[in-house]
Amino acid sequence: MKSTAAEDFDPKDYRRTLGQFATGVTVVTTRGQDGRFIGLTVNSFTSVSLQPPLVLWCLVRQSPSLAAFQEASHFAINILAAGQHGLSRQFASQVPDRFAGVELEEGKAGVPRLKGVAAQLVCRNVGQFDGGDHVIFLGQVEEYLRSEEKPLLFHSGRYCSLTPHPDFPE
Ligand SMILES: Cc1cc2nc3c(=O)[nH]c(=O)nc-3n(C[C@H](O)[C@H](O)[C@H](O)COP(=O)(O)O)c2cc1C
Question: Spelled out in words, what is the top-level CATH class assigned to the domain 24-158?
Fold first, then answer.
């Protein structure tokens, strides 16, 4: 295994290295002060604390959605189900309306909640922190729901689905 020191980082190679960390895929949504629905695909989501229930996710500073998330009182973390890779692509794209054709309900503070997800966390926006070229958003979970759907996974730049480890059959 080759080791690379900070001064020799190649951005593509570094990203490939981070891609070795498999994640789920979420769509983080909110409602702008002008009433518009805002949402984007995010895999930087993680749980931080159980008591109180805190989670975080990171948004790139150049995002046109940054101001809306900074001003929002609430946001929803929609944890996508295995079959929802189309939604992941739609919410990572530059289409004029990412919510076109998307089945949703409105939750707390008018936040859009996607239907058919593996799980969903409705969060109060409790903190924003400097994270270099990203802003770290901290949410306190006020409500959650969970379905029996298997989650969508992301690894090495590709969508994947869950199979049990052969050493741990059911
Ligand atoms: C699987 C996946 C995970 C992503 N995770 C993040 C993330 O954690 N933070 C982020 O800012 N962008 C992330 N992106 C990129 C955004 O979804 C994409 O750039 C989107 O266009 C940004 O929306 P915006 O134009 O409203 O900023 C991810 C994209 C994909 C496909």
Answer: mainly beta
Burial of 139: CB neighbours in 10 Å, binned 0-12, 13-18, 19+: buried
Mutate to test the pocket of ligand 1, among 29, 43, 95, 128 (most ligand atoms within 8 A of CB): 43
Is the pTM higher than 0.85? The answer reads yes
**CB distance 54 to 133 below 8 Å:** no
How far does residue 41's CA lie from ligand 1's centre (Å)? 5
In this structure, the residues whose C-beta lies within 6 A of any atom of ligand 1 are 25, 40-44, 58-60, 63-65, 88, 92, 154
pLDDT in tens, 153-165: 999 999 999 999 9
If you average pLDDT over residues 100-128, what whole number do you get?
Answer: 97
Cα 37–Cα 25–Cα 92 angle in degrees, nearest 5? 50
Pocket probe for ligand 1: among 60, 80, 88, the residue whose CB has the most ligand atoms within 8 Å is: 60
State the pLDDT confidence band at 170, using cuts at 50, 70 and 90. confident
